[in-house]
Amino acid sequence: MSTLPSSTLAEGTDTALSGAYKLTGPLLIGCFLNLILYGVLCTQVYIYYISFPKDRLASKGIVYVLWFTETLQTILNAYVIFDIFCFDFGNFPALDKVNLTWFSVPILSGLIGCISQLFYAWRMYAFSKKAPWLSMILSVIAFTQFAGAIACGIQARRYGYFSDLYAKAKVPILVSKSSLCLPFYRLLAGVVECERFV
Fold first, then answer.
1. How many whole angstroms separate alpha carbon 170 and alpha carbon 176?
2. Second label for 78, Cα 20 to 30 Å away, from 29, 105, 106, 171?
3. Of 125, 126, 127, nearest to 136 (Cα)?
4. How do the residues of the chain divide into helix, strand and coil, expressed in percent and rounded to 5?
């Protein structure tokens, strides 16, 4: 019969592991929340599929492209979390690696945001033909934030480590892209068609 070593993993750990939850806890909680919200999204897409079978093909295409993109993002995030907690468990330098996060977080999130904002810019144009310049400005903002997301993703891929990214990144992290669109929504607050559909 084989004998077990006198010290277990818990006994052999040093004080550095005692603070591991500060790094890994938010990652795990974020992944759990992502999976829960993905379940809500799948339910919403199913209800849309059942409730609006005669909806325009363009609207259906936008819904299904966004759902597919979110599915891809959820799969990639789950893979990264599995990699961190299974393959690299206890390896603190592995927490600093970017892995596939360079693609799944900034680029896919930027793509989802751009498609959604372009859809709302088109709806604003369709309901309020008095201000086509507003839809154009919102479209420019949507493409600008997507270009910024691609630039952030490329820099994250190039540096490979989060610590290098924070120290050397050339693209500044901007305030939320939604805050840029809020003043334009307030400009249209008096338009009855927009208030009814928003």
1. 18
2. 171
3. 125
4. 80, 0, 20
> In degrees to the nearest 10, what's the CA dihedral of 89, 94, 100, 106?
110
Structure tokens at 40: 């809500």
φ, ψ of residue 161 to 5 degrees: the values are -130, 140
Could you read off the pLDDT of 97-135 as tens digits, one per residue? 888 989 999 999 999 999 999 999 998 888 887 778 889
Q: How many residues does the chain have?
A: 198
What is the per-residue pLDDT across 136-185, written as a single tens digit (0 to 9) for each? 999 999 999 999 999 989 988 988 888 887 777 665 544 444 444 444 44
Q: Which amino acid is residue 22, in one-letter code?
A: K
Nearest-angstrom CA–CA distance, 145 and 133: 18
Here the tokens at position 172 are 């500044």
Its pTM stands at: 0.75
Separation CA 194–CA 125 (nearest Å): 10
| φ and ψ at residue 4, rounded to 5 degrees | -85, 150
What region does 173 belong to: left with phi over 0, alpha with psi -120 to 50, or beta? beta
Q: Helix (H, G, I), strand (E, B), or coil: what is residue 86?
A: helix
Domain ranges for the chain, please list them: 23-89, 96-198
* Residue 84 burial (C-beta neighbours within 10 Å; 0-12, 13-18, 19+): buried
Q: Where are the alpha helices (DSSP H) in 52-161?
A: 57-82, 92-95, 101-102, 108-127, 132-159
